[in-house]
Amino acid sequence: MKLVMGVDLETEVELSPAAKSEVAVFSPYSSPSTALLLQRRVVAWSKETGSPATVRVRLGDRSFDLHKDPLVSKCKYFSEASASLQSGDDDVELPASFPGVSEAFEAIALFCYGDAVALDPFNVAAVRCAAEFLGVAGLGARCDLYINQVVLQSWDDALIVLQRCQPLLPVAEELLIVSRCVESLAFMACMEILDPEEQRRDLQPGAGAATRALVGRRWDAELVKELAARDLWIKDLIALPFDFFQRIVQALRRQGMKEKYVSPVVLFYANKWVLSKKTHKFWASTDEAVDGETDANRRAAAILEGVIGLLPAESAAVAAGGAIPVAFYFALLSRSLTLELSDESRTKLREQVASNLQFARVDDLPLPEEEADRSIADSREVREMESIVSNHAASVQRKGAEAVSELWDRYLVQFAGDPKLRPERLAELIGVIPAGDRKTHNHLYEAINTYLVVRQVFNARSIMPTTVTCLNFFADKEEDANFAMLQEHRGLSGEEKATLCSHLDCRKLSHEACIQAVQNERMPLRLIVQALFVQQLHTHRAFTECSDSFRCMHSRELVPGAGGYTPSPGCPAIPTSQPLSSSSPYDSHRGPRDAKLRARDDASDYETASFRIQALEQEIISLKQTLQRHNTLTGSASARREREGKEPSFRVAADAGTPAIIKRRATVSGSCIGSMRWGSQRRCASRILRVFARIAVFGRGRSRGKQSKCSAATEQPNCM
């Protein structure tokens, strides 16, 4: 029995557990393993030549005992190191920059001994890079031939080789292995889209059907993940590292794939690696992460910046026909607020969001979870949306201003019921949209009304402890904090209500909203009167339109040939050249110009009513001040008479009874009707409307009188 370097020549060679596990992970196609074949070949070489293995090659934590002659004859790397080998140094350690694992070196060593190397998609990239590093003649050409004729013809093989190139960079990039696999995968993906069988079955792989299912829905990462799994080629691409995925997307666009198929692939990739909470938890819980949360955010930020760079431009997105749902942009925006992005990437994402504002739904806009220490309006999500919408409103080339204004008003309704929202902050958010951009004020009225309702509830709850002791009202510390919050966020004053409601224009309220505003006791007096006046204008316009339509209908019935009127034989027919509809004195002056004049008259009447309301408010304030001064004088006079011991007269006694009345009236605010009773509000509004009606009737009477005088003056010369 002979022993060569501790190896029994007559017994079977057994691998170590580490070598077995590494071989199993590296290439499942290798059977028997390359390591076992190499050890047998070394033993056979020792038997044939009678020379022991004098060279020990170290690679990481493993070592290989080999013969000098095969290595020097086939490997340029070992031939250059032959001088050190002749000096008696038997150990050669490969540097850390050596590409590939130990199996790649085993395959090269087996090739140096003259045996064939079993190539497969799992080891061909590593063997090719290792052969290039060691300068093995002939093996590199065999690997390139295998890649071109076998790997690049199969989707699965090209995908495996590309994934195996990740630890082999940059050598694999220099040998064009990565670029060849990328171009091949992109070409096969284009062929998958153009497959006639798919077109006959009306299947749009990964693009049309998936994205159409996401339009008009709230973003759901799990639903998007299920849609991505329907097409295997998309599922394979989004599993790649981002560097390879980015190059494949660029190759798809370069080879002519339509954007409606490319954009959904980017969407699915971002959903898996950036928006998915499961991926974030997996990264945060890995053993390699020092600080799990920070490392997960850093990896997500790097991928998100790359995804933002892959997003199509605005013109391309329009050409894609909605290939990317609008909710996706807002989902990326919400995720970016928790990550550290570069200024360039953040600016580009904001521009993408701003260009899609007119197509967004209120459910797409980000909203934070309720926080105990601050208001929702002060969160970073709302402030980010405020900045984007304000920049869009200030842009010269903005699109869909009316749609954006309605979207913003709906967004305000979402958090207008927050009890921690300050009135000045709400007014600031309302002012983000210019007044002229709002076509309707219905949603703005809803937001303000919601805020006033919440404030009224808090005001009612804050005065409840007056009936019981404050010490027994709250049971624990949490309720004490709630009571402190109630005291901090009391009901609004009349001036604050007037400031908020000054943004409302009753002329832009719908008929139902206008009726609700008239009956809303939380609204200021000025708004209620304006709503009443606008409602009167709406009613007058409705009656006018009804009378015009009725007159036109009957005019058509009287015109011969219209199908409704047939003259009798004894009656002359009405000439068709002058129909009643054109000869009517009421219709001769009506037209588009008259409609504009009526609209202008309505606007002037509305402004006149507003100025009149302000004048009445000033008069109420002056009367209130006069009554207060009178109350002070009578109070001092009665006190002086009581000190003198004189019996007050009937007038003084009557004056002494007025302070209670004056005090009761002093609670009435001149600028807000919220502190008055509902009956008083309606009576006050009715009196004002009667005054307006009298003024209007008086004006019409004067105009008619002038017309009658003028007609009489013109008839006298004719009679003479």
TrEMBL record:
Task: Please provide an example of a Pfam family that matches this protein in its UniProt record.
Answer: NPH3
Outline the extent of the NPH3 domain. 231-538
Q: Could you tell me which residues belong to the region Disordered?
A: 563-602, 631-651
Pathway per the UniProt entry: Protein modification; protein ubiquitination
- Gene3D superfamilies registered for this protein in UniProt: Potassium Channel Kv1.1, Chain A
For bias kind Basic and acidic residues, which ranges apply? 587-602, 639-649
Tell me the keywords, alphabetical order: Ubl conjugation pathway
Which portions of the chain have biased composition (kind: Low complexity)?
575-586
Tell me which Gene Ontology terms the entry assigns under biological process. protein ubiquitination
Q: Which family does it belong to?
A: Belongs to the NPH3 family.
What is the protein name stated in its UniProt record?
Answer: NPH3 domain-containing protein
In which organism is this protein found?
Answer: Miscanthus lutarioriparius
